[in-house]
Fold:
Amino acid sequence: MLDAAFISHAILWLIGAMTLGAIVTTAGALFAMGRSGYRKD
Structure:
């Protein structure tokens, strides 16, 4: 079951999931930093 095609496919999905998570996290951080300048605390 663990042949080279399966492993490369799994690695590709893992890289894609990590990239998607990094994009969402970066967008959230930039959004939070951008909003923090307008808050009146």
Remarks:
- The two ends are 57 Å apart (CA to CA).
- The chain has one helix and no strands.
- The longest helix spans residues 4-36.
